[in-house]
Amino acid sequence: MKEYRPHEIEPKWQKVWEERGVFTTPQYSDKPKYYALVMFPYPSGTLHVGHVKNYVIGDIVARYKRMQGYNVLHPFGYDAFGLPAENAAIANKIHPKKWTFDNINTIRGQIKKLGISYDWSREVITCTEDYYKWTQWIFLKLYEAGLAYKKPGAVNWCPSCQTVLANEQVKDGKCERCGTPVTMKHLEQWYFKITDYAEKLLEGLDRLEGWPEHVKTMQRNWIGKSTGAEIDFPVEGTDKKIRIFTTRPDTIYGVTFMAVAPESPLVLELVTEDKKAEVEAFLAKVALEDRFKRTSLEAKKEGVFLGRYAINPLTGERIPIYVANYILYEYGTGAIMAVPAHDQRDHDFAKAYNLPIRQVIKPYEGEWNVEEKAYEDEGIMVNSGPFNGLNSKDGIEAVIKFLEEKGIGKRSVQYKLRDWLISRQRYWGAPIPVVYCQKCGIVPVPEDELPVRLPEDVEFLPTGQSPLMLSEEFKATKCPKCGGPAQREVETMDTFVDSSWYFLRYVNPRLDDKPFDTKDVNYWLPVDQYIGGVEHAVLHLLYSRFITKVLHDLGYVGFDEPFENLFTQGMIYKDGWKMSKSKGNVVSPDDMVEKFGADTLRMYILFMAPPEKDAEWNDAGIEGVHRFLRRLWNNYYRILELLKSGQVEDRELNKEERQLRRKLHAMIKKIKEDIEGGFKFNTAIAGLMEFNNQLSDYLESSNSFHAGLLNEIAEKVALILSPFAPHMAEEMWHDLGKQTLIVEEKWPDYDPSALIEEEITMVVQVNGKVRGKIVVPAEAAEEEIKSEALKNVEKLIAGKSVEKVVYVPRKLVNIVVK
Ligand code: ANZ
Ligand code: ZN
């Protein structure tokens, strides 16, 4: 019998698929379209099996949808600019370009060995001129629309990567890339005005039914919408006002102090002469502190009295004004009305500085001692003059209405989201396409002069200054407006700009007069299924939605959400740890392909756990899957032998064969349901394993075989196997005598009439314990089954009295005796 030799059949079929171009996607077709997309990798090293999980899931979806009759777009590319590749290149003392392309070649080879059905003719590499030209074009479009701007301000700085970072790239105060604690710097930087899209980004989430709830929640929290009011508090003895933002205008009668952020210019405007020295010392101390620690909930609340009082516009009371470390300058108005009775941060501060705590909200039921702890929930307004007795929800509305009528406040919405800082002081990125002219100021590079090329012979080691600064050749240019001497911008764009539109480029990867064709992208997008890691929830996934919405509003694309369905796969751990080079626990796909073949690796990755769950790599597990594939192969070729040698009969199916056929069709039905009902590939594969066991039983125990049934099994099993273990399935299909390629075949339907059971097996229990089994006709009546069950345990219950017979249809009969 023919042996299973993955190392022979896998390269063979990969070559056939490539030569016949079976995965090359026609731009248009009569079939409905389906865009299956996986997150493209940073080519900062080689792939480990964690990446492979992403691509295998994508490939199953693509192959399955192709078999369902869709015109499938399944492309691949590399997020090739940026810190990950550049840092790795520096560590390896190789030019980032060489490092990146070497890795790309390795990765491409790794993936080709896995038999993933990418349309390689659409490969996209973000560090090539024909790609980054269009990244620069996107910058220009945002600039023209007033959505790209430069401003000075406090920015996140990674002392190790020697560059600024966007807020999204700071995780728990550390650099998302290298884990170094982030510091602050005052710099003039380029931003994209993502805050203009805060509301649209929130609204869109409500329409994304195909996204996991937890990812939407992360984005909502990141955008951080708060509704409330801005209120002006006059400063006693001056004509100045402090404007505050509050989400709880209903607590305004409980204000006992005001607090201003240390960075606010108000501090030095308001401080009285006698407090000046103390305040300045405090500001100097705060300036040295870590902003993330300082403003965290647990941090010690500190501040200094400014020597001045504000007037509560509702009560006319005098309230002391403090500068306090827990107030963020960048949020709201950078100043607050403090209500210690109902806000724990204010409570902590009041306790530290002996300020009054006045309760103005009481719980709907019971009492609350605000001296001990702030009451932050809703309740009934008390000590609040004309508002007493209102519940806090109505109170918020009533107070806002009152403030608006008096002209001292207004309804206000605030977002936590900040503009996206996109400039980087690094070499390996797309140069920002503007020049600085002494006469004209900032001048965008005209579209027809793109790309602004990244020079190659530059000292790229990070120094904190952009390496392009050192290239006189790059820097010196002419002003496009006046023709006078000008200097190019020397900073480059954040990698997340590159990846915020790559899914559009796959549609027209070689177009050289536009980034993409509007008609074509409107046909292919939104992406039907996007698959990737959850670590990008507020980075890439938010930025891509933003850029898509901008392009939509500028009329370049007809859709305003790029990804209709999102699936986030779990990670693969090894020895309890996330795989990493430094831990030395990386499982290389190449080793696994070498040892077991790609089909085994693919199958194992899908079988090890539900794909959305994290899973632990287990060597015994992959061996088990490999043995299964061998058993399946052996059964299959035994069938082919039987068919070929004519040891089969044309007759009616016998009982066992009818049963086996039922199992076959039940499996086909289940696998379809498992795939479509949430990517349950692991249970789909388990279904295939179960069927294979039943098939073994039949092949081993029968002495006469049914020709039609064997043919049907051979055909259906190969088809069902083909998305999972495509090489093996292709070989089987070929040996079955088919002239076509299985990758171009249709997914099999199940025969509903085959599913009707003739007999069912039911469990018989006595007092809840399993005591026997009965096989009854599927259409048998309840009474018939009960008496059959009683007969089955006759001896056991002899002499006892039957109290009750519990009947669970199709499952069990439980006889309760005394
Ligand atoms: C008075 C008040 C009373 C508040 C009360 C809360 C509870 P979110 O939900 O995060 O938007 N706040 C406003 N601006 C701030 C800033 N720049 N730095 C630190 N805290 C600031 O929270 C809004 C609340 O956070 C605001 O409502 C304000 O405190 C505080 F019982 O005003 B509140
Ligand atoms: Zn000029």
UniProtKB/TrEMBL annotation:
Domain Aminoacyl-tRNA synthetase class Ia per the UniProt entry, residue ranges: 416-617
Start and end residues of each Methionyl/Valyl/Leucyl/Isoleucyl-tRNA synthetase anticodon-binding domain: 658-782
Domain Leucyl-tRNA synthetase editing: 220-403
Keyword match Isomerase: no
InterPro entries on file: aa-tRNA-synth_I_CS, aa-tRNA-synth_Ia, Leu-tRNA-ligase, Leu_tRNA-synth_edit, M/V/L/I-tRNA-synth_anticd-bd, Methionyl/Leucyl_tRNA_Synth, Rossmann-like_a/b/a_fold, tRNAsynth_Ia_anticodon-bd
Catalytic activity, as annotated: tRNA(Leu) + L-leucine + ATP = L-leucyl-tRNA(Leu) + AMP + diphosphate
PROSITE patterns linked: AA_TRNA_LIGASE_I (PS00178)
One Gene Ontology biological process: leucyl-tRNA aminoacylation
'HIGH' region, short sequence motif: residues: 41-51
GO terms for MF: aminoacyl-tRNA deacylase activity; ATP binding; leucine-tRNA ligase activity
An annotated GO cellular component: cytosol
Keywords, comma-separated and alphabetical: Aminoacyl-tRNA synthetase, ATP-binding, Cytoplasm, Ligase, Nucleotide-binding, Protein biosynthesis
Compartments, as annotated in UniProt: Cytoplasm
SUPFAM superfamilies referenced in this protein's UniProt entry, alphabetically: Anticodon-binding domain of a subclass of class I aminoacyl-tRNA synthetases (SSF47323), Nucleotidylyl transferase (SSF52374), ValRS/IleRS/LeuRS editing domain (SSF50677)
Residues bound to ATP: 581
Origin superkingdom: Bacteria
Domain Methionyl/Leucyl tRNA synthetase stretches: 40-179
Motif ('KMSKS' region): 578-582
Family statement: Belongs to the class-I aminoacyl-tRNA synthetase family.
Protein's name in the database: Leucine--tRNA ligase
Lineage of source species: Bacteria, Thermotogati, Thermotogota, Thermotogae, Thermotogales
